[in-house]
Amino acid sequence: MAIRQLTVFVENKRGTIVSVTDTLSRHNVNIRALSIAETEDFGILRLIVNDEATAVKTLEDEGYLIKITEVVGVKIGDAPGKLTAALKVLDDANVNIEYLYAFMARTEKHAYVVLRVENNAEAEAILENAGFHLITNADIEKL
User: Fold this and answer.
1) What are the chain's domains?
2) Alpha-carbon span 46 to 21, nearest angstrom
3) Which pTM value belongs to this model?
């Protein structure tokens, strides 16, 4: 049930991020979540999009290097302590979280979080057993 994340390797210079987002928007790809990490010269742009195939093709056509990574998406209550509850069930099960970031879309009662862990199936089972709803690609398309 893991969702797929695009990791785009970009130069850390003015205009690079707008170039990526412009390319996606011109091809009607909607960004649902994103994260940027940088070094002095390069950045790692992580994206969850509504149309992975179009995003990959158009960005590769523009010369970007892209890696696809399966990650876990989880819906949590949009209130203090709800993120901690989700993270705690994974921590209690000795699941290490490599990184996380939030979706841009949210509802009145829920927030959506992307988690990168070593074993997606294990983390998904733990979260589901604790009563959390996992996000699917179909859910992303509806956001």
Assistant:
1) 3-68 (3.30.2130.10), 70-142 (3.30.2130.10)
2) 12
3) 0.81
